[in-house]
Design a protein that fits this description.
This protein is of the alpha+beta class and 273 residues long. It is 48% helix and 16% strand. It has a 4-stranded antiparallel β-sheet with strand order 4-1-6-7, with no helix packed on it.
Length: 273
């Protein structure tokens, strides 16, 4: 029984298609990916072929996605977050019961508990026959001395530390905190670029805002989504002809040609005219 739920399988299928498409586009072999990620080649082939029942638990699959994507030039952390890691409780219970059945086959020999019982009885008999063998004699035998009393210096040290810490905290509270500078609305608008995307068909998207990946995956057909950047905003599409782009509320135009992968970067300087 697979540990993946239906929604996990559907999302993993889309991620697998994206990884395979980008890897083939860059002419990277699975053997090279396995060498750089330390992932077993069998697991990579199963992920590439959609044989998800041969893969381990979802949390390990998420790690595979992150390392695989990093090797082929994608944002592995962002892509891995799109895969949920919830475990199928029915499959987990069945796996636990199977492991329990395997472990139940191994049992201790019957003579071991009797040997332990005999050793305990022998130790108790020795203690009864030798009453002078007590805890006090053990302390004297091993030279366990009385606990050392703390000196005057050791007792005074915590008090002095607490006084110093209190003085430091009071001075830190009295230090005025500088107020943040507030930019005018006009300057904020001139230094930003807003990009609205609308997908007309199936196309994989990656959006980076000021160098940080904000979205990786597929938008539903007809859904519009807007991102705003201060310096630059980069859009990468697996099928540029299905993606309509509107910059700063201008009329929407296709990102590129149908069936082609394209990456475009928008900046406030270029799109403020």
């Amino acid at each position: 029984m697979s540990l993946l739920q239906e929604n996990q399988k559907e999302q993993l299928q889309e991620i697998s298609n994206t990884l395979r498409q980008v890897r083939q586009e860059k002419s990277i072999q699975l053997e090279e990916v396995a060498l750089k990620t330390n992932i077993r080649l069998a697991c990579l082939k199963a992920l590439d072929a959609g044989k998800f029942d041969e893969l381990p638990e979802p949390v390990y699959i998420q790690g595979f996605i992150r390392r695989y994507a990093d090797v082929i030039g994608l944002d592995g952390v962002a892509l891995a977050k799109t895969f949920p890691t919830e475990v199928n409780p029915l499959a987990l219970d069945k796996k636990f019961s199977q492991n329990l059945e395997k472990n139940s086959k191994f049992s201790l020999p019957l003579f071991i508990p009797y040997v332990v019982l005999l050793l305990v009885a022998a130790a108790g008999l020795m203690y009864v026959l030798n009453p002078q063998f007590s805890a006090e004699s053990l302390v004297k035998k091993f030279n366990f001395g009385t606990p050392k009393k703390p000196t005057t210096t050791e007792l005074s040290t915590p008090a002095s530390l607490s006084v110093n810490q209190e003085a430091t905290s009071i001075s830190a509270q009295n230090t005025p905190t500088p107020l943040p500078a507030i930019a005018s609305p006009k300057d904020s608008l001139n230094q930003a670029v807003a990009v609205t995307l609308e997908v007309q068909g199936k196309s994989w998207l990656e959006v980076k805002v000021d160098g940080k990946t904000e979205f990786v995956g597929n938008l539903k057909k007809g859904v519009r989504k807007t991102w705003t950047a201060k310096k630059q905003l980069t859009v990468r599409s697996g099928n540029a002809g299905f993606v309509l782009v509107s910059v700063n509320n201008q009329p929407a135009t296709p990102l590129g040609t149908l069936g082609k992968i394209k990456e475009v970067t928008f900046t406030p300087e270029v799109n403020s005219q």
